[in-house]
Write a structure and sequence with these properties.
Layout (H helix, E strand, L loop, with lengths): L2 H10 L3 H14 L4 H10 L4 H10 L4 E3 L2 E3 L2 H12 L11 E2 L2 H10 L8 E5 L10 H4 L7 E5 L4 H7 L23 E4 L18 E3 L39 E3 L20 E3 L21 E3 L21 E3 L20 E3 L21 E3 L9 H12 L4 E3 L6
Length: 400
């Protein structure tokens, strides 16, 4: 028996959900972080953890260093299974990952409701003009990734004044799908999300190096006056992005405002790294009870950190390095779970609150290259007395 037949028998022995998980990984997520994939697929109403475990047990998947991998023959089999859904028309398949097929569908407007996922690498594809018409029939689209084959951190570090390549989008561009769980669009060109954007099921939103100025405008909230078709149940409060766990708008040079956090109650990771026009964070940040990581690295116009009006137990990592922060509020003591606090290269940082000594979970405090820090020595000695040798505190005294 040929090896392809043996592999197909293993696949055929899976239930429908396990097959979907296998095909998603084969087409989109091979080599990706297991936690990331589990989060996205879990948001698609899959039992991701148990499904991945079953695929591993059946030798259809490997987990190494928390990365998902599979043999090339298994991935090829997955590709062929998807292609066989419709040999002649890519728009009738559930997944599109090859540039030629994606270009065919988007330029000829042949997309259908069969499409559930699209990944497009713009660095290997021809210039594509995205239109609302091209996406109009994709009402079951749950995964969309438009990426450039570059490391954005490196690109912005070494090419700060150069324009990030962006695709053209008409101002009235819309996504028709209510099923969208994962949207990753490097260089997203519009100033805000479409006014009728359906974000109620979105789990991760990544718009690195985008043209975003405001994450969502007031028109988005008009959908709160509508009813869901299923059961005619009204959307609860103003939690438009109630399932969103990750928001990444790194290096969005035009971002000037983040609306209040009431619409993202379950946010776990917020990354605004390199957003140099961002001047403040919403004052209601304390309502994000699930927030684990907040990264504001390089937000040079960010001069203050909001008061923490209530206890935040889950925030573990806070990156404020390279910001314009002048001081921290004494209410930072409410960050009960904070383990890593980075204040390095804060050239305007003048003082640290004494309450920082009461952060009992703190393990790492970075405050080097902060030339204006004048009240640091007393706080430092208190930190060492209370936590030593638990805390790793990196200091570099300013030399004149």
């Amino acid at each position: 028996m040929e090896i392809e037949s043996v592999l197909k028998i293993s696949f055929d022995g899976l239930d429908d959900m396990e097959k979907d998980i296998f095909l998603d990984i084969a087409c989109f997520f091979k080599g990706k972080d297991k936690d990331f994939v589990s989060r996205i697929l879990g948001g698609c109403n899959f039992y991701a953890e148990s499904g991945i475990r079953i695929l591993v047990d059946k030798c259809l998947l490997i987990v190494s260093n928390n990365k998902l991998d599979m043999h090339d023959l298994l991935q090829y089999m997955g590709w062929e299974i998807v292609r066989e859904q419709c040999l002649k028309e890519p728009g009738e398949r559930s997944k599109l990952w090859e540039g030629e097929d994606v270009s065919h569908v988007l330029t000829r407007n042949t997309g259908t409701k069969a499409i559930e996922g699209i990944i497009l690498d713009m660095s290997t594809s021809k210039q594509i003009r995205f239109t609302t018409r091209a996406f109009k029939q994709m009402r079951r689209l749950r995964l969309l990734e438009v990426r450039h084959d570059v490391e954005y951190d490196s690109m912005m570090k070494y090419c700060k004044d150069k324009c990030i390549p962006r695709e053209h989008l008409p101002r009235d561009f819309t996504f028709p799908s209510h099923d969208l769980r994962y949207l990753h669009w490097d260089g997203y060109p519009l100033k805000c999300l479409p006014s009728n954007f359906h974000g109620e099921n979105l789990v991760e939103l990544s718009l690195q190096s985008s043209g975003i100025e405001v994450l969502w405008d007031k028109k988005v909230f008009q959908k709160l006056k509508t009813f869901l078709r299923e059961g005619r149940k009204a959307l609860c409060d103003n939690k438009v992005f109630k399932k969103l766990k990750v928001l990444n708008v790194s290096y969005s040079q035009h971002l000037i405002k983040i609306p209040d956090f009431s619409s993202v109650p379950n946010l776990e990771i917020l990354i605004v790294k390199g957003c140099k026009k961002l001047r403040n964070l919403p004052g209601d940040i304390y309502i994000l009870k699930h927030l684990k990581t907040l990264c504001c690295t390089g937000c040079s116009k960010l001069e203050s950190f909001p008061e923490i009006m209530d206890v935040m137990e889950n925030l573990r990592e806070l990156y404020l390095d390279g910001t314009g922060i002048k001081n921290l509020p004494s209410s930072i003591v409410h960050l009960k779970g904070i383990e890593y606090l980075d204040l390095a290269h804060c050239e305007d940082l003048e003082s640290l609150p004494e309450s920082i000594c009461n952060l009992r979970s703190l393990q790492t405090l970075l405050v080097h290259n902060c030339p204006k820090l004048d009240k640091f020595p007393n706080v430092l000695s208190s930190v060492y007395r209370r936590f030593r040798p638990k805390v790793r505190c990196t200091i570099e005294r300013h030399r004149t």
